[in-house]
Amino acid sequence: MNFAFIFHFFCFIILVTLKHINWNKTLNQKWVHVKMADEAVCVGSAPTSKSYLNMDAIMDAIRVTGAQAVHPGYGFLSENKEFAKRLAAEGVAFIGPDTHAIQAMGDKIESKLIAKAAKVNTIPGFDGVVKTAEEAVKIAQEIGYPVMIKASAGGGGKGMRIAWNDEETREGFRFSSQEAASSFGDDRLLIEKYIDNPRHIEIQVLADKHGNALWLNERECSIQRRNQKVVEEAPSTFLDPVTRRAMGEQAVQLAKAVQYSSAGTVEFLVDSKKNFYFLEMNTRLQVEHPITECITGLDLVEQMIRVAKGYQLQHTQDDIPINGWAIECRVYAEDPYKSFGLPSIGRLSQYQEPLDLDKVRVDSGIQEGSDISIYYDPMISKLITYGATRAEALGRMEDALDNYVIRGVTHNIPLLREIITHPRFVSGHISTNFLPEVYPDGFKGHQLEADAKRELLASAAVLYIAAELRSAKQFVLFRVASTPVECSHWELCVELGEERQDVEISKSGTVEMDGAKVEVWGALNLASPLLPLTINGTQRMLQCLSRDAAGVIVLQYLGTLFKVRVLSKLAAELNSYMPEKVSEDTSSILRSPMPGTVVAVSVKPGDTVAEGQEICVIEAMKMQNSLTAVKQAKVKSVHCKPGETVGEGDLLVELE
């Protein structure tokens, strides 16, 4: 098959790219997709409306390269029927379904009607377009709360809000319509009954142009934040063979109803009694498709290209296995301590994927030196592990997260590691409400028990001594021509938060504290970001992010960053005389919790605001976030205006 094509991926774009200063030298070094491509064509500047959503620029790239086909990936124009039509008019193959299927399934209102006609289980709701906020309230009252407000043309969790009362419906209508217009160029909304505490389980389908269609088993996607998936696995722990077949057969019925040809995904909500309801169909490759590839052995992109070329499917339903278990973690440049993940930007100053581990796959489009900007989704990579059993796959994921080095941006590895090791997740007792139920007060990082705390403090103390010994050796080599004084015992003070612990360390690596002994052993390479240690006989992988002259060591331990301070006993005594820094009063100021663009400012100097009242709206990575007052007060000054770009921590509004 001689098939030259453009691979226009959501984040991982082979062939088309962006304008950049000193483009040939700088961008080629920073972006993996440019390095991998035989040809790279600039399609515009960073804003998506001027580049990846600019059909004219993409069509020009196709003409310049003479591409015969376009694979749209899983974002931007991947489900845009107008783009598919323009390709067809140019005689270029669209590696995906035809425009009829894209239109039918891309519109949530039409897709629900088609699903009903195809005898697919659907969620009760309003089948028309909701035009105003007051109409939304009326419909929600008729359906009965809670309801889900979502974009008709949407996907990826954008343009979706859950409403539990009339006021939340009005607010949800406003934000969902704005996000829908920003992300999809279509602000139409629909409302349906919200299935409380459901699982989100999807079926992968594959169909050709000859009437053949298969279901390739399920993917469990229930671990979500803001309706966007965080951790996925295949198969699901919840489905039995009978339910799996019923869901698969209904998914194929729907695909055949729209004469679907290519890979696609039918998403369902599943309640505690295994009743399942059609949610939507994604007429594209899913971000989480690698876990299906792991358990079936099929290359979905290869199958899509074959179908686009006109070949029949090579397999029958009986050929589709479930071999082993696969887990995917979405590694994001996000701060997990803020609403389970608000976007972070910056340059990757150090980046090392755990590819030396067995049965680990990393799909990424970045490398060391790449920039994470405000213009695109903050995903860094998809981290996939595979095993013969679920326990094996989870164990490999734990190791992979511990060995993943990311510096320069805040990332969500602390949250991912906590999820996959949480007893409730390990037991398979999950739902789309997992995060708010497990962390009702927000994510706080790994909570150290006594043994783990001793392990951390002992590791920090050993690392401190190793650094001191190296410094002493270098001092002798380069400054003083005398023999260093040998020492076999050290007394230190280690601080973690408000706690202070006296420790004693022997040269053999035995650390004594609080009447207990911790054995720490390892060949410490202080130049490496990874610190493999054996602690009381258990192998651990720690990461040292920084050390400073004040004895502060930042360690990544069990996925979470801990700031530990190690001092000699004398330094600890003298430190007690140092004045403490006074914390900033944050109740009277509003700072941006993330980098983004100011969409709206709802107050002006002199206004009186109530507690919980909206002050402004920040858009980051196409998601709108309403910032509210934490107390009743008078507005003293406003430091932002709509359209401005703000950074994390920038002052927005001051209150009296």
UniProtKB/TrEMBL annotation:
<dbReference type="InterPro" id="IPR011761">
    <property type="entry name" value="ATP-grasp"/>
</dbReference>
<dbReference type="GO" id="GO:0005759">
    <property type="term" value="C:mitochondrial matrix"/>
</dbReference>
<dbReference type="Pfam" id="PF00289">
    <property type="entry name" value="Biotin_carb_N"/>
</dbReference>
<dbReference type="Pfam" id="PF18140">
    <property type="entry name" value="PCC_BT"/>
</dbReference>
<keyword id="KW-0496">Mitochondrion</keyword>
<dbReference type="InterPro" id="IPR005479">
    <property type="entry name" value="CPAse_ATP-bd"/>
</dbReference>
<keyword id="KW-0460">Magnesium</keyword>
<dbReference type="InterPro" id="IPR011764">
    <property type="entry name" value="Biotin_carboxylation_dom"/>
</dbReference>
<dbReference type="InterPro" id="IPR041265">
    <property type="entry name" value="PCC_BT"/>
</dbReference>
<feature type="domain" description="Biotin carboxylation">
    <location>
        <begin position="1"/>
        <end position="440"/>
    </location>
</feature>
<dbReference type="Pfam" id="PF02786">
    <property type="entry name" value="CPSase_L_D2"/>
</dbReference>
<dbReference type="InterPro" id="IPR013815">
    <property type="entry name" value="ATP_grasp_subdomain_1"/>
</dbReference>
<keyword id="KW-0436">Ligase</keyword>
<feature type="domain" description="Lipoyl-binding">
    <location>
        <begin position="581"/>
        <end position="656"/>
    </location>
</feature>
<comment type="pathway">
    <text>Metabolic intermediate metabolism; propanoyl-CoA degradation; succinyl-CoA from propanoyl-CoA: step 1/3.</text>
</comment>
<feature type="signal peptide">
    <location>
        <begin position="1"/>
        <end position="18"/>
    </location>
</feature>
<dbReference type="InterPro" id="IPR011053">
    <property type="entry name" value="Single_hybrid_motif"/>
</dbReference>
<keyword id="KW-0067">ATP-binding</keyword>
<keyword id="KW-0092">Biotin</keyword>
<dbReference type="InterPro" id="IPR011054">
    <property type="entry name" value="Rudment_hybrid_motif"/>
</dbReference>
<dbReference type="InterPro" id="IPR000089">
    <property type="entry name" value="Biotin_lipoyl"/>
</dbReference>
<dbReference type="Pfam" id="PF00364">
    <property type="entry name" value="Biotin_lipoyl"/>
</dbReference>
<keyword id="KW-0443">Lipid metabolism</keyword>
<dbReference type="GO" id="GO:0016042">
    <property type="term" value="P:lipid catabolic process"/>
</dbReference>
<dbReference type="InterPro" id="IPR005482">
    <property type="entry name" value="Biotin_COase_C"/>
</dbReference>
<dbReference type="GO" id="GO:0046872">
    <property type="term" value="F:metal ion binding"/>
</dbReference>
<keyword id="KW-0442">Lipid degradation</keyword>
<feature type="domain" description="ATP-grasp">
    <location>
        <begin position="114"/>
        <end position="309"/>
    </location>
</feature>
<keyword id="KW-0732">Signal</keyword>
<dbReference type="InterPro" id="IPR005481">
    <property type="entry name" value="BC-like_N"/>
</dbReference>
<keyword id="KW-0464">Manganese</keyword>
<keyword id="KW-0547">Nucleotide-binding</keyword>
<dbReference type="InterPro" id="IPR001882">
    <property type="entry name" value="Biotin_BS"/>
</dbReference>
<dbReference type="GO" id="GO:0005524">
    <property type="term" value="F:ATP binding"/>
</dbReference>
<keyword id="KW-0809">Transit peptide</keyword>
<dbReference type="GO" id="GO:0004658">
    <property type="term" value="F:propionyl-CoA carboxylase activity"/>
</dbReference>
<protein>
    <recommendedName>
        <fullName>Propionyl-CoA carboxylase alpha chain, mitochondrial</fullName>
        <ecNumber>6.4.1.3</ecNumber>
    </recommendedName>
</protein>
<dbReference type="Pfam" id="PF02785">
    <property type="entry name" value="Biotin_carb_C"/>
</dbReference>
<keyword id="KW-0479">Metal-binding</keyword>
<dbReference type="InterPro" id="IPR016185">
    <property type="entry name" value="PreATP-grasp_dom_sf"/>
</dbReference>
<dbReference type="InterPro" id="IPR050856">
    <property type="entry name" value="Biotin_carboxylase_complex"/>
</dbReference>
